[in-house]
Hints:
two-stranded antiparallel sheet, 5-stranded mixed sheet, single chain
Amino acid sequence: YSGKPTVYLFFLGHGCLHCTEQLQKFAAKSAELEKLGVNVVGISTDDVSKLQTALKNYEPQTYPFPLVSDGSLAAFKAWRCFDDFEQKPLHGTYFVDGLGRLRWWDTGAEPFMDVDFLLQELPRLMQFTPTLTTTAAKN
């Protein structure tokens, strides 16, 4: 997804009903996200076999975006979507623009559910280009 605006959904596996609800909300808005040119990727705490089993259990429901396994929690930890004190993964939603810059995120005990808010913010977040100004010190 390098070079493409992407929303990453870190979810606590299909055993988490809140996570399933979040995935369904994003799936329902996938056409609107696609129209903006934004990809979605779901990253699960389930290992590959559990993720495959969970997806079979939800058939005929499918998701219009890829769901990947992070059973080792390496990505959760790298993205700081992990509670080091309690040694538990957290829910996380991240938006990375086409230049690879993290523009927005939400992490915590509950998954982010307000897809309409994010849809309103994404055009603004994708247009934002920070400028750096410097001033020379005068002696």
